[in-house]
Amino acid sequence: MSHYCDLAPGHPFHGPYHDHEYGFPVTDDRTLFERLVLEINQAGLSWLTVLKKREAFRAAFEDFDIDRVAGYGEAERARLLADAGIIRNRLKVDAAIHNAGVVQALQAEHGSLRAWLDHHHPLPHADWIKRFKRTFRFTGPEITGEFLMSTGYLPGAHREDCPVQARILLARPPWVQT
């Protein structure tokens, strides 16, 4: 079975993501929200499709400004569903808007989305799935797992012998600190 560490290096889209983002700890809520939206949009599609559309997603969701996205109404929803640059799936668009409001509530209660994640870390993968399903829309086992792995809350983003893994360990993601 191929691993992302075998496929990504040198690829114009996968390579930079693999080498500089995937598995590294994320400290800001905007980036966490972006990753959540991108993981939700990957469902049923390839990660390459999402990476190729990433800049269009950033433009469409106003650089993943949580407050702005949480305030989207019907006009913005219609704009997103008409935007050929992104994945035009009503359930995914609705989930992004709804989840922005959830992030706002988590920020109000915990100070940040990151603080909410830290508050619940470490949890076994199955417990993370239950928590995400209760908290967010459109988050099943794969979306939750990839989100947590990509942001440093779960191990497994890279093979142990991948050169990027050593840099991730130096960055001390949450899963290393437990």
TrEMBL record:
<keyword id="KW-0479">Metal-binding</keyword>
<dbReference type="GO" id="GO:0046872">
    <property type="term" value="F:metal ion binding"/>
</dbReference>
<dbReference type="Pfam" id="PF03352">
    <property type="entry name" value="Adenine_glyco"/>
</dbReference>
<dbReference type="GO" id="GO:0008725">
    <property type="term" value="F:DNA-3-methyladenine glycosylase activity"/>
</dbReference>
<dbReference type="InterPro" id="IPR052891">
    <property type="entry name" value="DNA-3mA_glycosylase"/>
</dbReference>
<dbReference type="GO" id="GO:0006284">
    <property type="term" value="P:base-excision repair"/>
</dbReference>
<feature type="binding site">
    <location>
        <position position="5"/>
    </location>
    <ligand>
        <name>Zn(2+)</name>
    </ligand>
</feature>
<feature type="binding site">
    <location>
        <position position="18"/>
    </location>
    <ligand>
        <name>Zn(2+)</name>
    </ligand>
</feature>
<dbReference type="InterPro" id="IPR005019">
    <property type="entry name" value="Adenine_glyco"/>
</dbReference>
<dbReference type="InterPro" id="IPR011257">
    <property type="entry name" value="DNA_glycosylase"/>
</dbReference>
<protein>
    <submittedName>
        <fullName>DNA-3-methyladenine glycosylase I</fullName>
    </submittedName>
</protein>
<keyword id="KW-0862">Zinc</keyword>
